[in-house]
Amino acid sequence: MLVTYLILLGLSSTLALDNGLALTPPMGWLTWERFRCITDCKKYPKECISENLIRRTADRMVSDGYLEAGYQYLGIDDCWLEKERSSEGRMVPDKERFPNGMKAVADYIHSKGLKFGMYEDYGNKTCAGYPGVLNHEKVDIDTFVEWEIDYLKLDGCYIDPEKMDEGYPSFGKILNKTGRPILYSCSWPAYQEDAARKPNYSSIAEHCNMWRNWGDIEDSWASVVHIMDWFGDNQERLAQHAGPGHWNDPDMLLIGNFGLSVDQARVQMAVWAILAAPLLMSVDLDTIRPEFKEILLNKDIIAVNQDPLGKQGSRVWKKQGQASKNHLEIWNRELHDGSNAVAFVSTREDGSPYATTFDFYQMKLKDGDYEVHDLYKDEEIRYLKSGEEFEVRINPSGVKFYKFIPKNSKAALQDSKTDTNTVSDPVVNAVLLS
Ligand SMILES: *[C@@H]1O[C@H](CO)[C@@H](O)[C@H](O)[C@H]1NC(C)=O
Ligand SMILES: *[C@@H]1O[C@H](CO)[C@@H](O)[C@H](O)[C@H]1NC(C)=O
Ligand SMILES: *[C@@H]1O[C@H](CO)[C@@H](O)[C@H](O)[C@H]1NC(C)=O
């Protein structure tokens, strides 16, 4: 049945990049948010962008269960290059920090069952000032293929955003010609959203597996709220372009670093799951505290993020109260089995847990009876009958995140067994038609 409607979705959606990758939002780990451009390995041996950091992260991703949970890409962001190309015009990895070259790093990552992500910039220089790919597209792509990378984030510093409408697609075409499946992460719209004219997301979804829409995330609650606000305010434009193979990217997970409390980290994980966002950790996996690790490894929330229907959810209700009292919002995502993932978020930072009730209209739930599962498992299973109000009690700058499972749909799904040729399931039809 799953296969059937992936095919149906493929037929019904508009043109989109079809390289067989990112059928669900990519999951992995990236250096940037936590380790930035730390290059001094003498002063900061555990934090500098280096083969050592990548190796120990690869080890942790496997031994601590992240790979098993779905986090498969291990990516280096900016600051891995020497400042100059070689005499033949090739990219050269920093000789002290990557003493064995990038192929050795790739081999190690692959030996662990992980996939290798790399970073470059479409312009003259990367954002941190290292050599960019402009006028070296072919040789750089050949080099990446020699290194056997699986994922490429192509940033957009030091290039006119007007040039990106042609530049990113043409780079993607060269990537495609190599025959190596490489997940293509574009920063194209992030630079155009800043500029005068709006990005053409139809074209972006045709050429990229994922794309950074907007500014960089910073290690703070304010930054998370800012990004949530922006994605909520622009969801009419953005959400329609997400789907299997192509995703909006609100940027890395801050979870486990310095700026978010446990409650705030739970908010980011919940809203990123609703947004069908790539889940890219950026944290020291040697020292992460267990309560943050637990959030990152929450199987039920990962399942929401990875839901095969691939439909991006949205902010369905918002109330901005006076005196910072009721800053509440509801986010809702439809899932393939006819259920809904619903996050109740409080963005207020003061006070104590706040209890209130919501009706079906506010939660944007279809009429019916529901079984309600708390995805953070603080509460027992609850039942909500048609027409009743639902009570939630939310911590300041916190979230309650539930899966609402319609009573009938569960029964229907259990009855429909393994019919793979037709979409006979009424619930699935309802989802497809809605
Ligand atoms: C890139 O650098 C070259 C040579 O320095 C310069 O001529 C060109 O204008 C630069 N291009 C951009 C887009 O900055
Ligand atoms: C190249 O593009 C074609 C057509 O979209 C696609 O079928 C194929 O999988 C792509 N190959 C790679 C390596 O990206
Ligand atoms: C946006 O891109 C699509 C697909 O490439 C194209 O058909 C359309 O004309 C573009 N729209 C604008 C306004 O340029």
Q: What are the main properties of this structure?
A:
434 residues, six-stranded antiparallel beta sheet, alpha-galactosidase activity, Immunoglobulin-like, TIM Barrel, glycoprotein, eight-stranded parallel beta sheet, signal, 17 helices, alpha/beta, disordered N terminus, 34% helix, Glyco_hydro_27, binds 2-acetamido-2-deoxy-beta-D-glucopyranose, disordered C terminus, single chain, hydrolase
Describe, in short, the structure shown.
The chain is an alpha/beta fold. It is 34% helix and 18% strand.
What does this structure look like?
- With 434 residues, this protein is an alpha/beta fold.
- It is built from 17 helices and 16 strands.
- The chain has helices at 2-12, 32-35, 51-63, 66-69, 101-111, 137-146, 164-177, 188-194, 201-207, 221-233, 235-238, 262-274, 290-296, 299-305, 360-363, 407-415, 426-433; strands at 27-30, 73-75, 115-121, 151-155, 183-186, 210-212, 247-249, 279-281, 314-319, 328-334, 340-346, 354-358, 370-374, 382-384, 390-394, 399-406.
- Strands 7-6-5-4-3-2-1-8 form an eight-stranded parallel beta sheet. A six-stranded antiparallel beta sheet has the order 9-10-11-16-13-14.
- Helix 12 packs parallel to helix 13 (290-296) and helix 12 runs parallel beside helix 14.
- Mean pLDDT is 91; it is low at 1-12 and 411-434.
- One 2-acetamido-2-deoxy-beta-D-glucopyranose (NAG) binds at residues 123-124, 158-160.
- Its EC number is 3.2.1.-.
- Residues 310-398 form the Alpha galactosidase A C-terminal domain.
- Homodimer.
- It is an enzyme of class 3 (hydrolase).
